[in-house]
Each structure stands twice: as C-alpha cells, then as structure tokens.
C-alpha cells in the first residue's frame, strides 16, 4: 500500500478573454513550478467591468498535487 499526501493551494487566474481561459492560465502557470497537478476545483468566478463591458475575467481555483518525499 502506498501512502499518499495531497497538497491543495488556492490561486487566482486572470484573462482578458474568458473565465475558462483564466482557469487554464492558473493551471498552466502553476504547472511551471509545481509537479504532478492532479486536479483543480473552481471556487469563484468574478470579472472587472469598464463602461458596461467585461474587460477582465478572474477565477479563484484550488489546485491539488501530491507531496513527494525527497
């Protein structure tokens, strides 16, 4: 039996395009410094509005990855 420990961190992804892109940005950028991301939970979606239009999408996400013995 293998004992596994998973760490979860909260991030905010941003994008001028969409909420999906904001989520992708959070995962892709965190994957540059975190090995083995195994899941993402979307907590909250918000946006910045200027002149009645959405101009920036934000996604609060939790990213899960295994803790590795070193």
From TrEMBL:
InterPro entries: Dodecin (IPR009923), Dodecin-like (IPR025543), Dodecin-like_sf (IPR036694)
Gene3D superfamilies xref list: Flavin-binding protein dodecin (3.30.1660.10)
Coiled coil: none
Superkingdom classification of source: Bacteria
Protein name: Dodecin family protein
Species name: Proteinivorax tanatarense
């Amino acid at each position: 039996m293998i004992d596994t420990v998973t760490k979860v961190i909260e991030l905010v992804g941003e994008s001028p395009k969409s909420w999906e892109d904001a989520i992708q940005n959070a995962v892709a950028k965190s994957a540059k410094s975190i090995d083995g991301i195994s899941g993402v939970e979307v907590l909250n979606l918000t946006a910045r509005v200027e002149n009645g239009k959405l101009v920036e999408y934000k996604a609060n996400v939790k990213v899960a990855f295994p803790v590795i013995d070193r």
